[in-house]
Amino acid sequence: MGLVFEEYRTRRIVNVHKRVDPWFWDRYSATPYVGCRSGCEFCYLRGQRYLPSIDPDRFDTHIRVKINAVERLRRELPRLEKDTLYCGDWQQPAETRYGLSRQMLEVVLENGFPLVIIERSPLLERDVDLLVDIGRTSWVFVLISISSLDPQVKRAFEPRSPGLRRRLKMMEHLASRGIPVGVALMPVFPYISDDKASLRDVIRVARDHGASVILAGTLSMEGVQAQRTLRVVQRYWPHLETAWRDLYRWHQGKPAYAPPRTHTARLGRMVREICQEEGVKDRLPRYVVPGPRAWNKKLAEHFHLRAYALELAEAPPHRIWAYRKAAWSLDDYPGDVRQLYRDQGVRGLQSIPHIGVKLAREAANWLEESGGVKGIES
Ligand code: SF4
Fold this sequence. Notes:
The protein is an alpha/beta fold. It has two domains: about 5-280, pyruvate-formate lyase- activating enzyme, CATH 3.80.30; about 295-370, DNA polymerase, domain 1, CATH 1.10.150. The protein has helices spanning about 70-75, 95-100, 100-110, 130-135, 150-155, 165-175, 195-210, 225-235, 240-245, 260-280, 295-310, 315-330, 335-350, 355-370, and strands at about 5-10, 15, 30, 35, 60-65, 85-90, 115-120, 140-145, 180-190, 215-220. The strands form two sheets. Strands 2-3-6-7-8-9-10 form a seven-stranded mixed beta sheet. A three-stranded mixed beta sheet has the order 1-5-4, with no helix packed on it. β9, α7 (about 195-210) and β10 (about 215-220) form a beta-alpha-beta unit. It is globular and about 70 Å long. The N and C termini lie far apart (about 70 Å). The model has no long low-confidence stretch (mean pLDDT about 95). The structure holds iron/sulfur cluster. Iron/sulfur cluster (SF4) binds next to loops.
């Protein structure tokens, strides 16, 4: 089917998330194109959850272009509290024709917003000058998406995406220019690329090309995206079809959205162990914009990390959720958590929603140990 670009004017370009994402720490996201020529079979954007109004089978041939993306961004960013903006796969082939991503990066730079990028396309190298400047005036982190180093896996699941070697070279180039880089090892394919040796290969090669962070995630399955992904398994790894169906609890033609948490936790533990051995991080450190609420966000990061550690340990869900909700409350808290602690002690911390006595004590200890109460007026 031929490639169609449909231009339209969008009413809003920035999505403001209700919650900060604890993987990428983004509060905002924006994208100039809907649909992607790379057409990866597993692409979560083919699921109905994110883009319910598009035809998932035409996701790679019918690209919608927000022709006023740059002017909208220029208007919207100055009105928002400065926090991390996420952009993912902006540099797809549509960019060669429209050039909106580069202009949007210029607007991000003008407004001093921190930026996290997840990208498959080496076209990002074109914008290295802007990324360096964004890093100087605020913060930038680039995650290159790589699911596996096995060319057969790449050919099967993402036949039209840019080559793995080119992605690694791009990562090395960005790192050589002082841009912090990592790998989004997503999705990891069950029983295909989730064994220890394959994971270690990617992590080691990524580290040798400059990566300091590896974020690994499992595959989600939904609607047409799930059907297409399973078709790839049927064609290239037919002996794994039953195992995949079992893992995603396939029932009446539909899978569960995610594998069971035992599977996800096992993968997370394995990646954590390998990352420690290879000297890279398995979590992206949070960038916090300086200001009166900076320590709230740092403490929220601490609680999110605790929640993740409990996920890996397969702790009871109520314990994980306790940390998560406390972290969200801290992000929303309008005052300065250090001042609250200095003025009212542990009891004061308990006045923040979802922070009970145990978490308040933990927060107090963390603030003391991290130097958070130094320099605060009493
Ligand atoms: S490159 Fe990214 S956005 Fe494009 S199809 Fe692949 S996963 Fe989806």
